[in-house]
Amino acid sequence: MTTDTIRILVAGGIFMMLLLLRLEANRFGAAEFDEPGGRRRGFRTRLSWYLIGFGLLATIYVVHPAPHDVLVLLAGHRSDVITYGTVLALLGLGQAPVLAWWRYGYLRLAPAGAYPGAAVNSIATAVIDEATFRGALLGTLLAMGMPGGLAIVVTTIVYVLTTRMAAPGRPRSMSLLACGIGLACGWATLESGGLGAAIIGHAVASFALFVCTGHAGQVPAAGSEPEEMEYRKRPPKGWQDARLLPRAGGAAEMRGLPEQIGPSGFGSRVGLRGVPARRSGGLRAWLRSVGEVFVDEPAPRPHRYEPGADHVYGRRPR
Q1: What is the mean pLDDT of residues 280-288?
Q2: CA–CA separation, 229 and 250 (whole Å)
Q3: 138-152 pLDDT, tens digit each
Q4: First to last CA, the chain
Q5: Dist. CA 91–CA 283, nearest whole Å
């Protein structure tokens, strides 16, 4: 066994560690799990994920005997990087508002303080993913004699499975987006001879998705956003809560009703663009409510004391 063979085997083992690190991105709260707001992981935990990824990539670059010629761990030709990187960036900028409009019916903007961290996460994740999948994996498949088109497809499948974009409960739109990123970045890598264009396109697409949806890549299923759940709890348009109505002869007070008014199953879209019911879950709730009859029972009149009257039922005996 030659020295180069040993170095290739060691680089292959480090590549498997990269795949395991990518699978565990959820535990670190990094990559597409870097959500704004109440994060389950702190900044140091997320930072450690980036540092470990860059460290493993640097080790592969040093250990492998031909990181440029075989693993495609280089930027590529400058003119091609600019050309193909611009094309991928425009595609990434175009898909994000379309996805947000189809999913929400409006642009769901994140808090202003979340944008710097999202930019860092998009760039770092793009570098790690492209060097791992479109660099080490794609380059190895090409070196083994696999055709370019088939190698891109295989790399894309591994990328979608590793990032868990096709996991149960994920919207199909996210799986399609991951497939599009894998195919487009693989094509740009072969055409430009490096990873520069793929990194630019991937980073722009990820950041644009965050800007338009408020998520780093974990866009949830329809009806599960906090604002969607809040709107679904509201009464239908035109209805009023009887507990908040004023009394007949006095100021507005809370009426002590014996029962709480349950959710109606209708969703209110006040202030938002119209979204079809199938996206918010309102149609299913409406179908469940079909056939239900609501009967308003009048409140019992108070008994009035009268001398000699039978007060068991509140009326005089016949």
Answers
A1: 47
A2: 35
A3: 999 999 999 999 999
A4: 114
A5: 33
Name 7's Cβ contacts closer than 8 Å, sequence gap at least 6.
63, 64, 65
Query: 285-296: per-residue pLDDT in tens?
Result: 445 554 444 444
Q: Which of 191, 185, 121 is nearest to 155 (CA)?
A: 185
Cβ 92 vs Cβ 99: under 8 Å = no
Alpha-carbon distances, residue 247 vs 35, 161, 241, 312 (angstroms)? 46, 61, 13, 30
User: What does residue 115 show for φ and ψ, rounded to 5 degrees?
Assistant: -70, -40
What is the Cα–Cα distance from 61 to 53, expressed in whole angstroms? 12
DSSP 3-state of 267: coil
pTM: predicted TM-score of the whole model, two decimal places: 0.72
In a domain, 315, yes or no: no
Whether 231 and 285 have beta carbons less than 8 Å apart is answered as no
Single-letter amino acid, residue 302: P
Domain of 95 in residue numbering reads as 3-213
Q: Rounded to an integer, what distance in angstroms lies between the CA atom of residue 221 and that of residue 212?
A: 16
Residue 31 lies in a domain: yes
Pairwise CA distance, residues 154 & 145, whole Å: 13
The answer to whether position 318 is within a domain reads no
Domains: count for the chain: 1
Distances (CA, A) of 152 to 67, 134, 141, 240: 19, 8, 9, 57
Taking alpha carbons only, the member of 121, 196, 194, 198 closest to residue 159 is 198
pLDDT, tens only, 165-207: 888 877 888 889 999 999 999 999 999 999 999 999 999 999 9
Answer whether residue 251 is part of any domain. Answer: no
The answer, yes or no, to whether residue 234 has pLDDT greater than 90, is no
